[in-house]
Amino acid sequence: MIHLELSDITKFTGDAIVNAANRSLLGGGGVDGAIHRAAGSGLLEECRTLGGCATGDAKLTSGHGLPAKYVIHTVGPVWQGGGHDEAELLASCYRRCMEIASEHEIASIAFPNISTGIYRFPKELAAEIAIATIRKAMLDMPAIEVYFSCFDEENYRIYRDLLKN
Ligand code: AR6
């Protein structure tokens, strides 16, 4: 089932949260900064062992000091006008996170609105891609509980309207 929340993803108490990271996986601002602060320095230590991550891909770590058991770090595309495969790369982020969730028998997962902050991906298009990609992935994993954790009201309203249909 798909759930929608206006929430701080660092408080999520299910199996996994997704981090909107950068290719270094060594922390940053936005939700990435909030997750590292809440998880504690053990998360950064584990991330240092991963060798970074390509845009559109994802890597799993433990949740360390977070209530969630795991963090799945994914790297969204920087919006550059739409002609640089941004839509396909964003879909790939959601798809790869769901594949990793399946491999690790994750029963509940919370996603932030990947790329819609510092990376400036248009929110409406990002939400359409997120919902379509998750719905498709859930055909193979019908029991998983997916939470869209929106942090700003604009994203929350966009998701609410799109999920009605
Ligand atoms: N819980 C849920 N969502 C949040 C939280 C939170 N605690 N804090 C922010 N958001 P952004 P990006 C939302 O900028 O665009 C970092 O520096 C925020 O409102 O965090 O993918 C990385 O290291 C927005 O809707 O990520 C990268 O360098 C969404 O999270 C870069 O930013 C994503 O915004 C990635 O940029």
Structure notes:
With 165 residues, the protein is α/β, with parallel strands linked by helices. It has one domain: Leucine Aminopeptidase, subunit E, domain 1 (3-Layer(aba) Sandwich). The protein contains five helices and six strands. It has a six-stranded mixed beta sheet with strand order 1-6-5-2-4-3, sandwiched between helices. Helix 4 (123-138) links the parallel strand 5 (108-111) and strand 6. Helix 3 (86-103) packs parallel to helix 4 (123-138). The longest helix is centred in the middle third of the chain and has 18 residues, at 86-103. The two termini are 14 Å apart. It binds ligand AR6. Residues 8-10, 20-22, 28-32, 34, 76, 112-119, 149, 151-152, 155 line the site of ligand AR6. Ligand AR6 is lined by residues 8-10, 20-22, 28-32, 34, 76, 112-119, 149, 151-152, 155.
Instruction: Tell me the domain tally.
Output: 1
Contiguous runs where pLDDT drops below 50 for at least 5 residues: none
**H/E topology pattern:** EEHHEEHEHEH
Q: Kindly report how far apart the N and C termini lie.
A: 14 Å
